[in-house]
Structures are given as C-alpha cells and as structure tokens.
What we know:
By secondary structure, this protein is of the alpha/beta class. It has a domain at 3-187 and 225-253 and 296-304: NAD(P)-binding Rossmann-like Domain (Rossmann fold, 3-Layer(aba) Sandwich). It has 11 helices and 13 strands. It has a 7-stranded parallel beta sheet, with helices on both faces. Strand 2, helix 2 and strand 3 (61-65) form a beta-alpha-beta unit.
Amino acid sequence: MSYYLITGGSGFIGSHLAEALVLKGQNVLLLDNFDGFYSRSLKEYNVQQVLSQAKSTGAQVELLEQDIRNQQKMEEVFSNYPISGVYHLAALAGVRPSIERPVEYWDVNCTGTAVLLSAMQKAGVRRLVFASSSSVYGNSPKVPFGESQDVNNPISPYAATKKAGELLCYNFSHLYDIHTACIRFFTVYGPRQRPDLAIHKFSRLMLAGRSIPFFGSGQTSRDYTFVTDIVQGVLKAMEYTKDHPYEIFNLGESTTITLADLITLLEKNLGVKAQLDRLPMQPGDVERTWADITKSRQLLNYNPQVGKEEGMRLFCEWVKTTPGLLA
C-alpha cells in the first residue's frame, strides 16, 4: 500500500488535491505544520472534507503535523511510509508579508524545500510536483507569460523564493534523477480559498458591510483560475513525471479580469454593494498576470473548464453558507 504525500495538505489547494486523489482510491498523507498565517479552524475544516470523501472510497488518509524544515522528522516520514510521489505545496505565501519577513520566507520556502528534496533522495522517492507561482514573472512587459521567459527579476522576496525553489528542484533532478514538474500557479480561487486572498477577503468584508481595500486605479488585472481546474492540471503533471526528468508548466485560465470588474462580479453574486477604501498601489504587487498555457495544453492535455462567471458564482455560494470558519 503506497501513499502520495502532500505537504501543505490542510491548505486550500492541498485539501482539494487530496479530495481528488482519494476519489481515485489513492492513499494520501497530509503533512502540515498548521502555521498561524491564518486560522487553524479553517485548515481543520479542510481536512474534514478530505476525510469525508475518503469514507466513500476506502482510501487511507493520515494527517502528520510536522514542519518541512525538520530534517529528522522528514526523513522519518519517508522511512515510515511507502511514498510513491510528493506534491510539495507547503510554503509561506503572500507577496506583501514576504517584504516584511524576507528571512522567514527564505527559511520556510527554500530551506524547507531543500530538506524535503534531501529526504526524498535518501528514501529513493523519484517523483515530485513542486508548487511555484506566477509571481516569478514579476512585471514582465511580454504577455501572456510563457515558461521560456526570463524570470530573473522577481519583485518580491516571495517570488524570489519560488524561483529559487525551481532551481533547487532542477538541481536534485539533475543529480539524483528526481523527476519533477514545477507548476506556476496563476491566482487560484474557489471554495476554501485562503482568507487573505482578494476574492475571499473582499467577500467577507462586503457581507459584513465593511469597506474593502482598493489598491490603485482598479486596472490591475489577474488570471484567476478555479481550483478544480488547477487540481486536474496538478494530477496530470504528476503523471508526466513518470517519463520526464524536469519541466516547468503554467497553470492558469489564460484570461484576465481587472480589479474593478472583479468587484462588480462579486457584487452581482453576493447581492451587496462594495464600499471602497481607496489606497495606493502596494510595493511588490504586479500590474497583471496572464498565463500562456500552450505548453500545458500540449504536454499535459490541460484544459480549464470553469470560467470566471461560473467560478465566482460557486465561490460566492460557498462563502455565504460557511460563516464562523475564521474564528
């Protein structure tokens, strides 16, 4: 009996990925240190959704509360469980907090990744999907962003750690034959989204009758991608690692929406008018993200299905029916 290990498994993307795996009858290890970046109660809610799905399939799910930086503990995990592949999603996330805490971000995102890769190498585990980010593209003037573009000018410590993570993964692929797919996520949203991210944060504030932070003119744009589309791409990336040593893929919807239009869409689906607290652009924020997914379509057969209208409707239905999770 083998397992897939998901680091950051109690998080937003991790828990949705775990659900998809257990629905396929796969056994899953959820590894998380329950960092206090946001409420533990929301992460525990996420885990419960995975466990509920597992009951219907008979798949095994275990939760390991560990820190990826602890080399001894990580080596014990690989010694104690037969692991067939690793989805490495654990990280300190967020552009703005990384500017305030760059050393901590480097420690978790880079040292933690190096520890994990070392433990994989010692245990002979040879398949990895690494969660990178569209933030590595910075303010590149060439859009949509393609994987072959120069990403040597990150504009936040968070982006720098993700680029460094890709390089570490390449190093271990080259030295130890750890087949790796690095996935550059483009602003993932959907039920259980992290509460610090714009769609979730704005929705809660709007429903509470409070103002929302509105940075700049409202013309910054993002390539928002629904979580089920992201999960399907991630699963296909793991399949790709069977026969390929290293590759980088964009996973996005490949369409964009401005901040102003996003708020209009939220108003429509939440049934409330947004009160705007107008603020200047923040350091480290990029002007736009936009994924070129040609490569992912060709090599992974990736084909996003949930457009923004449908995705926002599904998210708003969830957020309106799940009060109290952030307590």
